[in-house]
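Appendix B: a complete holo record

For completeness, this appendix reproduces one full record from the ligand-bound portion of the collection. The bound molecule is adenosine-5'-diphosphate. The inputs are the chain sequence and the ligand SMILES; the output is the full three-dimensional arrangement of the complex, encoded as structure tokens. No fields have been trimmed.
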Amino acid sequence: MRFSNFFLPTLKEVPAEAAIASHRLMLRAGMIRQEAAGIYSWLPLGLRVLRKIETIVREEQNRAGAVEMLMPTLQPADLWRQSGRYDAYGEEMLRISDRHKRDLLYGPTNEEMVTAIFRSYVRSYRELPKTLYHIQWKFRDEVRPRFGIMRGREFLMKDAYSFDVDFAGARQSYNRMFLAYLNTFARMGLRAVPMKADTGPIGGDLSHEFIILAETGESEVHCHRDLIDMPAPGIVDWDSDLQPLVDARIALYAATEEMHDEAAFAAIPADQRLSARGIEVGHIFYFGEKYSKPMQCMIAGPDGVERPAQMGSYGIGVSRLVGALIEANHDEAGIIWPEAVAPFGVGIVNLKPGDARVDDAAATALSVLEHAGLEPLLDDRDERPGAKFATMDLIGLPVQLIIGPKGLDKGVVDIKDRRSGERVEMSLDAALNRLTAARGTG
Ligand SMILES: Nc1ncnc2c1ncn2[C@@H]1O[C@H](COP(=O)(O)OP(=O)(O)O)[C@@H](O)[C@H]1O
Ligand SMILES: [Mg+2]
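The structure of the chain with adenosine-5'-diphosphate bound, as generated:
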């Protein structure tokens, strides 16, 4: 991609309304544009990151055996009357009426709809367990949308729903998602810590929030330090008993403020206690018959007796993750994308557009890296080098390939690593070999 052909409206000024780094950087880097409070357009650079995150989430859901579908954003109010939530949900629900004066709503979540879908097709235990998910826009009329897309009103969520015949099955489905979440966040270079969350009237202990530690996080969290360093499970046999893998993690103390138990926390040796702020990027929850019972989603067991399906729901804030990733990966100069979610893999800087030698070298680099699948972005604008370096650092591509007339006189170009700032000189061929080889092993 050539910069001159792309649409990347970066801002020089630091927007006054943005209180945290990720919001400031997303606006400055031309990733999003606010259209109304908590409602954003995803500009091309932002969309590329959002899609990368979505793909990782999707691949890990599929790997764990969940099945993708797509439910609409608009839902009939009648569905929500069946579960009793239409009135209970309150002002966060955006209620709409159509030309026939039928009540609709913009879905804040999909328990009712997925339960209605399931009950109309599935009757027997033989078809269970099943986990269905979709990645769809949600709307919640938050009182105080803030921090850009981190707490928006319209936001992209992956939400999965599991159906089982009994509690043991539901726990296995829950454990699958628990472990799949750890792998998902690890692939993005994030350490998300599962923390005990409130189960409300459902009771039990099957609710966890996945939290990324960040100073600007909205939640106060407390945990055992060892949890932070515990690696993701990686390859998992999803049909085996997953309880030991889950137990190894939940054995260590971790709770958000609402669930915090001072005494249990105090029992941890002082140097292993960690109290910090965090961002909730995922939430998994077992709720049993909460929807299947009032909505009559009944499953016949091997004994022929019909019982309400045992259900759980599992959310990931796909759009919030874009902000969370920036909170975890930035410096004074801008964003530093982890490779797996970078909008482009390599930024090529042409220091002197119009100079035939430099233009040729840059065009060669663009073509070679494009063919190698590295998704390069070539800055071919007629701008001062300083401005180009600043833009590249701001948008945070992991590697920069810098090509200028002085270097070419010596037969070299520069490769700059965005995170370390380290710059090395080598011939263009060597640089292209190195970048494409790194791709091959990565
Ligand atoms: N207003 C929002 N803006 C962006 N992401 C959100 C918002 N609300 C929730 N999410 C994301 O969706 C995930 C699942 O939502 P859920 O747990 O139902 O929300 P909540 O914790 O607000 O009750 C959350 O873990 C979070 O990552
Ligand atoms: Mg939550």
